[in-house]
Design a protein that fits this description.
It is a single chain. This protein is an alpha/beta fold and 340 residues long. It contains 15 helices and ten strands. It has two domains: 234 residues, Aspartate Aminotransferase, domain 2, CATH 3.40.640; 88 residues, Aspartate Aminotransferase, domain 1, CATH 3.90.1150.10. Strand 4, helix 7 and strand 5 form a beta-alpha-beta unit. Helix 8 packs across helix 13. Pfam families: Beta_elim_lyase (PF01212).
């Protein structure tokens, strides 16, 4: 099957993850997470995050939506960048399930602009207006950019100063950790993140994400929330088992580093043939402007998404199993279509 630059969701599953799933497919164990394998996975997370509560859910949308559901008060609203994943790519699920309004903030790089966010606090005590009580950010962002530790700390301080909670959508948090050269905890709990959606599917897992509650008070009723919202898996061992080698054997690092490294290689090779790269490349996404006349034909061999049709900007995402050969073949095809 041919490789694609459409998304890291298109990739397969890391071989060692598959082996772990097969390993736990032996005999009968307790269902719904009351098994030793799930407890081992939870302990793996506690080893890297400290005193937290951990829950496993099926997918990224479930992780983000239920994180927000667990954080909300009776009249909460959520501040987030206008191009955040929870705004653009979850079909309105956050608002439908939680009932909360998403208060969007203009952004050119996918990051939250704190000065622009302040507009949602000027009427916080006016019951005619939405009550902003949660901030949600993505690490990495939808534009492939990465918040620095100082930027996350500033957002966390802003949240705390205004009696708000902070959620991080970490669908690609492993790519961010590799890019920043820091630990997961240094990027999250140490900086005041209250709840983290910890992604694995985009980085070599078959399915499943983890919700990490640094603010354990918010987790008290989450077992019920997860069940009510259709995200409790009965044969939990097959989901949770993946995270044991993923964390213990640093598979997360291996996968994310390869994806990030290949993205850098792709960026350099595009620039060599004078294809403009429009955004800083730190993780595993490259945004570039391709000549309009070659896009459709190029997609027949290497699928990718058009990000901004007006300027012919495309998004190219590398994965844990992407190779330099994949990039070389992609560049070769571009040259062929351009007659170079």
């Amino acid at each position: 099957m041919k490789k694609s630059f459409a998304s890291d969701n298109y990739s397969g599953v890391h071989q060692k993850i598959l082996e772990k799933i097969i390993e736990v497919n032996n005999g009968h164990v307790s269902a719904y997470g009351a098994d030793e394998i799930t407890q081992e996975a939870i302990e793996c997370f506690k080893d890297i995050f400290g005193d937290v509560e951990v829950f496993f859910v099926f997918n990224g949308t479930g992780a983000n939506v239920l994180a927000l559901e667990g954080m909300k008060a009776r009249a909460s609203a959520v501040i987030t960048p206008e191009n955040a994943h929870i705004v653009q790519d979850e079909t309105g699920a956050p608002s439908k399930i939680t009932g909360m309004q998403l208060l969007t903030v203009p952004s050119t790089d996918g990051k939250l602009d704190l000065e622009a966010a302040k507009k949602w606090l000027t009427f916080k005590n006016n019951f005619h207006k939405p009550k902003a009580e949660i901030i949600s950010i993505s690490q990495t962002t939808e534009y492939g950019t990465v918040y620095t530790l100082d930027e996350i700390k500033a957002i966390s301080n802003f949240a705390k100063e205004n009696n708000m909670l902070l959620h991080m959508d970490g669908a690609r948090i492993s790519n961010a950790a590799v890019a920043l050269g820091c630990s997961f905890k240094e990027m999250t709990g140490d900086l005041g993140v209250d709840v983290l959606s910890f992604g694995g599917t985009k980085n070599g897992l078959m399915f499943g994400e983890a919700l990490i509650f640094f603010n354990k008070e918010l987790a008290k009723e989450f077992s019920w929330i997860r069940k009510q919202n259709l995200q409790l898996y009965s044969k939990m061992r097959f989901m949770s088992a993946q995270f044991v080698p993923y964390i213990k054997n640093n598979i997360w690092f291996e996968c994310a580093k390869n994806a990030n490294d290949i993205a850098q290689y792709l960026k350099l090779e595009l620039e060599k043939i004078e294809i403009p790269v429009t955004k800083e490349v730190l993780a595993n996404a490259v945004f570039a402007i391709l000549p309009k006349e070659i896009i459709s034909e190029l997609q027949k061999s290497f699928y990718f998404y058009i990000w901004n049709e007006n300027i012919h900007e495309v998004r190219l995402v590398t994965s844990f199993d992407s190779t330099k050969e994949d990039v070389d073949n992609f560049i070769k095809k571009i040259k062929e279509l351009l007659g170079k």
